[in-house]
Design brief:
Elements: E1 4-10, H1 21-28, H2 34-42, E2 46-48, E3 51-52, E4 64-70, E5 86-89, E6 93-98, H3 115-125, E7 134-135, E8 144-150, H4 153-164, E9 169-177, E10 184-187, E11 191-193, E12 201-203, E13 212-219, E14 231-238, H5 245-252, E15 275-281
Parallel strand pairs: 8-15
Antiparallel strand pairs: 1-4, 2-3, 2-4, 5-6, 6-8, 7-8, 9-14, 9-15, 10-13, 11-12, 13-14
Helix pairs in contact: 1-2
Length: about 290
Amino acid sequence: TSTHRILKFTVGRLHGRGWRLDKYLAALLPTMSRAMIQRWIERGDATIDQVVATGRPVLRPGQYVVLNAPLPERDDIQGYANKLDILYQDRWLIAINKPPGQLAHQAGRTMNGTLLNQVQDWYEATGGDPQQVRLVNRIDRDTSGIVLVSLDVKAHAIVSQAMEARDLDKEYRAICHGGPKEQHGHWRDPIGEGPPESIARVVRPDGQVCHTEFFVLEQAAVAKPSDTPAFSLLRLLLHTGRQHQIRVHAAHNGCPLVGDWVYGMPCRELTGQALHAALMEFAHPFENRT
């Protein structure tokens, strides 16, 4: 939420059997330090079966644990680098054009300045309940474009179910080095985890099923038809939604995105990869329209 990081779970019958509470929480929150988690417990921010946890208790199967850790105080609504670029708004939903460089939501030790923080502050300032604000989709920090945010819990559930059922269509635009040989095609390379010391994902036979459809919209001029263009503008349709899917597929197929420092090379003129979430189409949860 805008003020707390809340985690609720029931201890499983096998997973984590006999673990201390701080170790279990550290496994669920791998980007947080164990010392920070222990401070939360010592401060009384965790309960086990509705009783405040003390010390370093060992967990038992079936126990219900709630962590309700307050976040650091954040800047006020005027403290964000960019004003909200609102593309669409009604009483249930709001679509934001997220700038590159801004996290969509709190992650790791970054608690301030996220798009979720900003929308919660904006909605509260307009008289709404910030607790109702939830992200429907997420895009990478350095990717720009549409992030859909719900202002109503019921609307969030309906649209999220549509996204899981692939009844929500998303299109991206990207600029890549070189370009595909075909003007239209499909990348279906399976993607899985990369080396443990890297955030990169890789194409691997045992990876998750992935499907990216591409269209070449424009290409940089070439001296003769047989030459490879320096850059191409791509229209990309996601038929699955895996982490870094477009970036991995483009790089694996010989046309890494411009500015992608993970799968290609950085670009001095860009903060990150040249990737933009350009279109989102779905049935409105309460009105007979898309």
